[in-house]
Amino acid sequence: MPAHRLASASSVALVTDDSGRVLMQRRGDSGNWSLPGGIMELGETLSQCAVRETREETGLDIEITGLLGIYSDPVHVIAYADGEVRQEFAVVYYGRVIGGQIMVSHESTSVEFLSLEELESLPVHSTVRLRLQHHAEYCGTPYLG
Q1: Predicted local confidence at residue 77, as pLDDT
Q2: Whole-structure pTM value
């Protein structure tokens, strides 16, 4: 399905706990499990956006520890309930928890640390699955695509 427009720059955080489980939120709009993230606001950097969005969506404070990748492939599109189809442009950072408490936001129905094995059987958008795959295969070089 072709995109109607390019999404605004967004930041995403891939945060793991000491057991290697990934911080995920179940989106209220689609029911899919997703990494925390969102659109950059005026006056902030992409990394500051990832920190802010993670706090807003999960209740956890994080610090950025690295870069998983830059995702701008034209075939990575997301169709929204209102009919909008957007080509995504996201920078996915690695982060670690430095404070806060897990909580559900107005955008989600659940927030949990989940193993990659648990996520295999849960509803996850293909673009997020790709990011999780890159995380599982990470060898120190960010994905650029």
Answers
A1: 77
A2: 0.89
